[in-house]
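input
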Amino acid sequence: MLPLKSKDLLGIEHLGVDEINLILDTAESFIEVSERNIKKVPTLRGKTIINFFYEPSTRTRISFEIAAKRLSADAINFSTSTSSVSKGETLIDTVRNLEAMHSDVIVIRHSIPGAAQFIGSRLKSRIINAGDGAHEHPTQALLDMLTIRQRLNTLQNITVLIVGDISHSRVARSDIFGFLKMGAKVILCGPPTFIPVEIEKLGVEVEFNLEKAIPRADVIMMLRIQVERQFSMLIPSLREYAKFFCLTPERMKLARPGALVMHPGPINRGVELDPRVADGPYSIILDQVTNGVAVRMALLFLLAGRPGADGNPAPL
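output
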């Protein structure tokens, strides 16, 4: 089995199908670790993982920290509010200092698209993109693919409906790249102001009527409105949005038997997702969270602990 081609994970767009399958298969093997009484293996003992988050995060940051610790690595959380960043230190100076302390992997979340690629091209340390602006969020797409594959046993010839603020969503971009590569069909749905112009050129379909889109989907991925990335309100009101695009129990009656409901979080209950649906039998949202740890364990192993990653065999 060949390793990942790059020292970094910067996005889904440039990953090959074999690389995606390698990550998902490796993640499957790590799920069992989290189910043990003692949730730890020595795979990355002696390695240092730095979680370098310029933006707030709950699931992604904590799951990376848990993943590192379950692999016996030293995990360090970087806070910009208590660092020299608050004094005006540049991004590149900050990460070069982190690398000078012999960090093995830097996990970065930043508000600027391309930030992960910018530092990845300038450092020897391995870089994992934990979300860069409205560009990509590759680890979220990988855990989404793993969760669907567990439930449906395949990613080929299924239809994934992504609903919401597509224009400002890094999750949507990574999911589109990933699902299309793996042979799925993707339908996007939302108000016209939330759908990028000419996005059909990526190979997706656009539908503005949620009731028409739901019956065609095997998976319904709901997205929150990215208010923090909008320079002006692109809808009349949240109430108006919910009227047409909130996934309610009534709308779920249109869905295929066995359809899956997903959300990358955080959920705005009552806006894009009715609480009865979020907590109902269709929902696999908490499975996504669980699988996030396994996917991030797999990536840390493949980038820092796999034989050949640093010239030495991985510890057993």
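quick obs: The mean pLDDT is 92.
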